[in-house]
Design a protein that fits this description.
alpha/beta; 2 domains; 38% helix
Amino acid sequence: MKSILLPTDFSPNSINAINYATDMFKDVVCKFYLLNVQKASAFISDDFRTMSPSTTIYQSLIESTKDSLKKLVSKIETRKNPNHSFETVVDYDNFVDAINQMCVAKEIDLIVMGTKGATGAERVLFGSNTVRVMQRCSTPVLAIPQHCTFKGLDKIAFTSNYLTFYNKDELFPLIQMAELFNSEIEVLHMVEEEDLSQDQENNKAFVDACFKYVSHEFVDLEKSNLFDSVMGFIKEKDIKMLAIMSRKHSFLERLFTKHNVEIFGFKIDVPLLVMENTGKLYAAPT
């Protein structure tokens, strides 16, 4: 059984992510944990005046949120999927700390979160909470753009410069998804030198061995603008998901650099799977 964490603030984006997750894993036995994280600033001065003397601030916040979560689960359960069960949790903590604690306590396999798209003249990649979770959580994160609905997962793009040492366990979420949905993985490499170094050749061979049980292909993209090349490939090949590794100086960091966002007005419109990479060297799989 998969354990999936669904953080929600009851916004349309977070509700869309919940619907995406339940549709995506409709044939998989899953335990979904709906988490809402409260913070002190959510409790304003007017609330003090309406509270009864015996009511604590904590109780007022938690009970109201619990009720909202129960109503949300009731709506989801109208689909009557016997493969799915739900548990609601309200936490009064720092958002990322609450996520990390839940991941450990409930042995979470995947975090699914909603993202924010373009608003007015400003293009926003993801809400700040989603970015922080991607950067500071070791559990894989699947970020779902607003209005995105699940339409199968026949093709997944995975970016690699072949300079990073991978652990097969770190690639497991991607491999598992590809096996589950019979997906083809397109391994994208931005060509910067005419020939690969020996380390790059070894790392490419390692990835090839890790993906031996799933359909995959290595694709070289001509050296140009990173974002335009990747997104152009995604559009041309009708890629359903982009998968990347998160580590220092990774594609993820470059993606979220403010300068690049401002210059390219970048807007990702396919789900993004972010997996943690430790950067350690491991022996090739047998």
